[in-house]
Design brief:
25 helices, 541 residues, mainly alpha, globular
Length: 541
């Protein structure tokens, strides 16, 4: 084992020297395809070193070398002033870090009070297959926390980690379920922290197409059936739970977890309190986010309506980062009170010690998130997304545009590590392209292709995000579940690729040729449900 570790270190050192030298060489040649190099270098180093932090940092340095034209001093200045320091000037990124750290302390308090163990026992009962019910519980939590992808992924992974261990569910599976429900549900939800950005991008696309005022919400709702990847990713998650479909390395991880597990009903070393001591702080965290958003965004609180509630999300968009932090602080205070109550009402310094222990546990992995943002800063300045987007225009027939947009959105999201970035770059391009290529066509036909393009942008953005080791949600999901980001990507990739392939072949290609979206959805769902039988039959033969 020691020799293998030493060999890997020497291999990583050699690969680092080669990658940095190649970056210096490329810096002296102006080439549009070299904008992809930082992503390629980061992915290569992650695979070689098996360290997400090292790979992302090397990718960020490679980007800085290209931007500085190979100058050593310019590289350092670019890295520090343009990639690292701006992170702390972004309210969203600062809030994401604070939210992640505070949530670590929150979960530590909920666990220490014993309420979480009581809640898990209440949910699981005495089932003969606790791993199935545990996974269904994770998926159900993912549907309930629909209002924010980051909160969903972080809360579910960190909150249910110890319960998953006890029920024979691998942490890789926990990370997969949290990541899948986090992004896919937030992208489909008409009330979420994503919706304001999504609607603004739809409006921007129509403005650039010269269409003036349109109902962005109307087009968003119409595009929901065409957001094939998000639907198929959620369906496949249910298939893998209910039919125990675990292809590739996920099957290995799940078998190992079953062997290590202890059935909940046989555990005598876990001190469980009443489940209400966990439900109350979790409810405060979950409900305070939409309630605070409504209070801040709504001009008047009454009368209440769903449409008014949805509009408040758009108006409160600028305050979402602060709302997440405020909600996590309130929930942590309630969790501290529950912990004190579990200790018969004695408030001591233990609460602070437990909270800080949870924060310390999360502090190290947060560095990986910072490294991913540094790489993203370089990729943004190099114009990688724009280069990929421009490669689409004029190269596809109209009927294949939805499929082409989906593939391009996937490439942008994967290489940049951000689904929002892919939406922001591609939506303002996709809608005008549809209008320009369908000039003179019947309005109904043009509208059908525009709706398909909107769904393709959203689907491609989330698909690429699920596959990317640079994605912040991928990293947060692995942090929350307690697995290495590379292991999370490796085990999640087969599921993402299956859902993505079905979305492309069964969804966007036939959709472009006029097949109704609901028919495509139905065929895709049937195909995914029958996949385990085909897989087992082929494995048996």
């Amino acid at each position: 084992m020691l020799k293998r570790t030493t060999d890997r270190r020497w291999t990583s050192l050699g690969a680092t020297i080669v990658v940095l030298a190649a970056s210096g060489y490329l810096a002296f040649f102006e080439s549009t395809w070299s904008t992809l190099w930082p992503s390629v270098a980061a992915l290569t180093m992650v695979l070689i070193s098996r360290s997400a932090l090292l790979g992302l940092l090397i990718g960020a340095v490679c980007g800085a070398i290209l931007l500085a034209g190979g100058s050593l001093l310019g590289t350092i200045e670019q890295l520090v002033l343009n990639q690292f320091w701006p992170i702390f000037g972004s309210s969203w990124k600062l809030s994401a870090m604070l939210f992640t750290l505070i949530l670590g302390g929150f979960v530590a308090l909920v666990e220490a009070g014993g309420g979480l163990q009581g809640l898990v026992k209440k949910l699981l009962g005495s089932a003969r297959a606790p791993h199935k019910r545990m996974q269904t519980t994770v998926f159900g939590f993912g549907l309930l926390v629909f209002f924010d992808g980051l909160a969903n992924t972080m809360l579910i992974g960190r909150l249910l980690r110890s319960a998953a261990d006890r029920c024979g569910v691998s942490r890789e599976k926990l990370a997969y379920l949290a990541d899948t429900t986090g992004s896919a549900v937030a992208c489909l939800a008409f009330i979420s922290t994503w919706i304001a950005f999504q609607l603004s991008m739809i409006r921007e696309g129509f403005v650039l197409a010269g269409q003036g005022e349109v109902s962005a919400y109307g087009y968003f709702f119409k595009s929901l059936p065409t957001n094939f990847y998000c639907w198929f990713a959620l369906i496949l998650a249910l298939v893998c739970i209910w039919r125990e479909f675990n292809p590739g390395s996920m099957g290995v991880a799940e078998r190992a977890a079953r062997e290590r597990s202890t059935p909940p009903e046989r555990e005598e070393d876990v001190q469980a309190s009443h489940w209400g001591l966990a439900i109350i702080p979790i409810a405060v965290l979950s409900l305070s986010i939409p309630v605070l958003t409504y209070v801040i965004g709504a001009e008047t609180l009454l009368p209440f309506s769903l449409s008014k509630f949805a509009e408040s999300y758009g108006k409160a968009e600028a305050y979402v980062p602060q709302i997440l932090v405020a909600s996590s602080i309130m929930a942590s205070l309630v969790a501290a009170g529950s912990y004190a109550f579990a200790r018969r009402g004695r408030v001591t310094s233990n609460e602070a010690r437990v909270f800080l222990s949870g924060v310390r546990e999360i502090a190290g992995p947060v560095l990986i998130l910072i490294a991913a943002w540094m790489l993203g800063g370089a990729i943004s300045q190099l114009g990688t997304a724009t280069y990929l987007s421009e490669s689409l225009q004029g190269h596809l027939p109209v009927a294949l545009l939805p499929a082409g947009i989906f593939v391009l959105g996937t490439l942008i999201s994967f290489s940049t590590g951000t689904s929002w970035g892919a939406m922001g770059v591609l939506m303002p391009l996709a809608i005008p392209v549809i209008f320009s290529l369908t000039e003179g066509a019947v309005d109904l036909e043009r509208d059908r292709l525009v709706i398909a393009a909107i769904g393709a942008v959203f689907s491609g953005a989330v698909f690429g995000d699920h596959c990317s080791p640079f994605s912040d949600t991928t990293i947060v999901a692995s942090i929350a579940a307690g697995v290495e980001p590379l292991d999370h990507v490796r085990t999640q990739l087969p599921f993402a690729m299956i859902a993505g392939l079905v979305a492309l072949v069964v969804g966007f290609v036939p959709l472009g040729f006029g097949l109704p979206a609901m028919v495509c959805l139905g065929v895709g769902i049937l195909l995914l449900w029958g996949l385990p039988s085909v897989w087992k039959a082929s494995a048996g033969s």
